[in-house]
User: What shape does this take?
Amino acid sequence: MKAINENTITDAVIEQLSGTPDPRLKQITEILVKHLHAFAREADLTPGEWIRGIGFLTAVGQKCTEFRQEFILLSDTLGFSALVNSLHDKRGADLEAATKSSLLGPFYRKDSPVMEAGATIVTKPTNGMETCVYGKVTDTKGRPIADASVEVWQPDEHGDYDLQKMDPSEMDLRGRFHSDAAGRYHLRTICPVGYKIPMDGPVGDMIRAQGRHGWRPSHIHFLISAPGYREAVTALYIEGDEHIDSDTVFGASDSLVVRVSRNDAASPIPGLPSIGYDFRLAPVAAGEGSGRVGADPSELARASQ
Ligand SMILES: [Fe+2]
Assistant: This one.
């Protein structure tokens, strides 16, 4: 009989895991145990702190519903979702040249209405600033991809998505466009504003306890896809937002920041403020599927962003 103490417990647990038939599950759980134990040792965790942590995680689980995923919100606010996305971006062929991923968020819908180039995704009265969003969809060499699907969704001028303010049978500020033969897309929308993550649950309590503001900078979500290419799940972040360098869920990144231009000669809708951005898709790696980043809200309950 071996002594079980703070020095031997980690090896004892890993020994019990050694018969795990699935090699990836074995690898992940071994690493998890090592880091979890190292965390307790480094923090010199007390039983009181441990039970408080258990209580917090219990509350996170109890806050989850069909329409609210507090665990994803916890993952997002700890930077874990953004880290997993970054690891995904580095995996596969020619991905350094592809558009960086950002968080899919909870407000994506598969059934966005298909729209003609240049159509507006605004369906309700709004005081928002009308804006043209345009650009190209290309491969990582800059060659145009024709008939790529460009799905776009965003909050309104108050920071609310349609799913937050109206019945799901209605839609606003979302649509699906297709690139033309030269890879070009363009649409009309309004410039969104930033919003706070849901602060009425245990993650909100954590954010307040950490003295954080809870805001996300203004952004427009995109899901770009074309046969043979890895999906780009990303978002464009509006330059000048006061929270652009302190996004609570760490989705904003320098290569995804765009400027609203008042006099852009390249814009296909003259006279309208415009945002120009070209999306670069990486080829699908063998056996990879679409390479979707993040949970599909139809499969996982809605989360935070
Ligand atoms: Fe969002």
Q: What stands out?
A: The longest strand covers residues 130-139. The pocket of fe (ii) ion is lined by residues 105, 219, 221, 305 (CB under 6 Å). Helices lie at 9-17, 23-43, 47-63, 70-77, 80-90, 162-165, 202-209.
